[in-house]
Design brief:
The protein has helices at about 1-30, 95, 105-115, 135-145, 160-165, 165-170, 180-190, 190-200, 240-255, 275, 295-315, 325, 340-355; strands spanning about 50, 65, 85-90, 120-125, 150-155, 260-265, 320. Strands 4-3-5-6-7 form a five-stranded parallel sheet, sandwiched between helices. The chain has a two-stranded antiparallel sheet with strand order 1-2. By secondary structure, it is of the alpha/beta class. Helix 3 (about 105-115) crosses helix 13, helix 4 (about 135-145) packs parallel to helix 9 (about 240-255) and helix 7 crosses helix 8. The chain folds into two domains: about 1-30; about 45-175 and about 215-355, 3-Layer(aba) Sandwich (Rossmann fold). About 45% of the residues lie in helices and about 10% in strands. The relative contact order is 0.14. The chain contains 13 helices and seven strands.
Length: about 350
């Protein structure tokens, strides 16, 4: 019995020391790695400043990507928040525009254009590479009650389509796609973020690189006779109904917070014509696609998500900007299948500014 009590005493002391060390490391990490002022499942990093040297068509070879106090791309949040038209942009990499300079991203073009027209406006870019509407719902749940923007604009479709096409993504999912103890710990603890990252590197042997995989699209020939497709293309995109439900959930969240939600369709370089029927469909970020398809078929599938977006807008009485109908399928607009060049980004920003200008003062 004495030995057991002694063991408990020693064990308790060890646990106390470990907890104290963990608290010290957590404190130091929070000093070194600032967190956004709101509690969020998403790892927005405030006051980052990255210098970029991309070698991508239609993108300057030298650029800067910086974040504000919210950890988003854009100006610092205005002090007179309630007197400003505050706009939150939600989406994946086509919203984030990672490789474009701060001044060239479409959210910046949107803000500057509205300001020239006399509006007092702030646009925060909350786009996160790879995120789908699954994650957008969680982001809106977290952020809308805390920062209370007046408008949310969401460019949606491409990553939801890729969930259908990529079995790896569809079944493994994203840690932000659902709430779990791990996702909550990741959001709350800097120490857990560090430990989890090193677990991925040392235990799971995940490769960590400094270079992003974005590339200029190089067209590869494709023989349309080899394309084996089901009679109904909807069989290739089983997550389309989920996508519609997620958009409706986003609309419900916006209404609950008295926020105006504007949905935007996803444009693409690909088109449904003879040229793209003879080009290999190429989304280099899909590790394991279920079918070998032409670029034209990829556009047809993406257009199904765009049409679903327009349908939800009608059903939910939402404002919707059909960007995909206004951006031409040209190389000067895109450096790959869906990511915008500087010129394409400017076009999107100007389109959205014109669309919103009536209600923004």
């Amino acid at each position: 019995m004495r030995m057991f009590k002694k063991f408990l005493k020693i064990g308790g002391g060890v646990v106390l020391v470990l907890l104290t060390l963990a608290a010290v490391f957590e404190f130091l990490l929070r000093l070194l790695i600032p967190s956004p002022p709101f509690s969020s499942l998403f790892n927005f990093r405030p006051h980052m400043n990255l210098k970029m040297t991309p070698n991508i068509r239609g993108v300057a070879k030298n650029g800067v990507q910086s974040t504000n106090a919210f950890g988003m791309r854009g100006d610092e949040p205005p002090k007179n928040w309630n007197e400003t038209t505050t706009i939150l942009a939600v989406g994946g990499s086509t919203t984030q525009c990672f490789f474009l300079d701060d001044q060239k991203i479409w959210t910046n073009v949107l803000q500057r254009t509205l300001e020239k027209n006399g509006a007092k406006v702030w646009v925060g870019n909350a786009g996160i590479d790879g995120h789908s509407t699954r994650s957008h719902v969680l982001l809106m749940e977290d952020l809308l009650p805390q920062i209370k923007p007046k408008i949310v604009v969401a460019l949606v479709g491409i990553n939801d389509m890729l969930i259908s096409l990529s079995e790896d993504v569809r079944f493994q999912k994203n840690r932000f796609d659902r709430r779990s103890i791990k996702s909550i710990l990741y959001a709350k603890s800097k120490l857990f973020q560090v430990i989890y990252t090193w677990k991925l590197i040392l235990w799971d042997q995940v490769q960590v690189t400094q270079a992003n995989a974005h590339l200029t699209l190089v067209e590869a020939p494709f023989d349309p006779k080899t394309e084996s497709l089901p009679k109904d293309l909807h069989d290739l995109i089983p997550t389309l109904p989920e996508f519609e439900n997620n958009l409706k959930a986003m609309a419900q969240l916006a209404r609950a917070q008295n926020v105006k939600l504007v949905l935007m369709t996803q444009p693409s370089l690909f088109d449904d014509n003879d040229h793209w029927r003879h080009v290999q469909g190429n989304f280099y970020w899909i590790k394991k696609a279920k079918h070998d398809m032409s670029a034209a078929t990829y556009w047809r599938l993406l257009n199904e998500y765009n049409q679903a977006t327009l349908k939800v807008c009608r059903e939910e009485n939402l404002e919707c900007l059909d960007v995909a109908s206004f951006i031409p399928h040209r190389e000067d607009m895109f450096y790959d299948a869906v990511h915008l060049t500087e010129l394409g980004s400017e076009r999107v920003g100007l389109l959205l500014a014109e669309f919103l200008s009536v209600g923004v003062r």
